[in-house]
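Side project, low priority. Logging it here so it doesn't get lost.
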Amino acid sequence: MIFKEYKPSISLLPYIETYWIAEGYAKTKEIDKIFPDGCVDIIFSFNQIPNNGALVPYLPNLIGTMTTFSEISYYQNISMLGIRFKPAGITAFTKIPINYFTDSKTDLTLIDTLFEEKFYAKLPELETSIAKIKHIDLYLNQRLISIFELNNQIVFATELIKKTNGRLPLIDIANRSCLSLRNFERKFKTAVGISPKTFSKIIKFKHTLSYIKKNPTESLFSIAVDCGYYDHSHLIKDFKTFTGNTPLHL
């Protein structure tokens, strides 16, 4: 399996984290785990998949913000292309509350505010993944003249949580975002898909996972303290929720 990431054009950076492609061939059925990252993805799968007896050129799906790990299985030819939006970034292209999609996969063609029919018609005609990415990037750039305004308070909050590796108390984040705690939690869930508490846990988990990779011989207790956990049992609990395994297993 080959996995590559590509940055969007500068004008789309406030909304899109990255484009990615996953291509390869598996002789036998393989299963990978996908960990939550606080983002919404749109995935185009270009495998020839039977649909009521007829082959379809590709399947477009919106993958909502995840609160736990998911498993993906693949076999033989794999060709996928994804758009990973920044937290709350997809709200520029749809007014549907993002928490409607949390922990779910939705047929993208059912969300008509995102792409037009002419977009879907041209995409499978392009031969390479790079050409498909350019087509997506150009289309979304053309949509910028009619996008919805981002909630800058929530965008600020997501960046603050990431900057502090998920360690800042929610009341402090709400205050610095100029929102009451209750209003902050409601607006955050609508724009990001999950509560700010869960988002903070995911960001802390991601930071800790990176920390463990860089310090594989350090004790779990020491890692927990350095990464902002109350103790190592809380660290283990979060890892089981987000990966299905303990840190030692990973």
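Brief comment: The longest helix spans residues 196-214.
Revisit when time allows.
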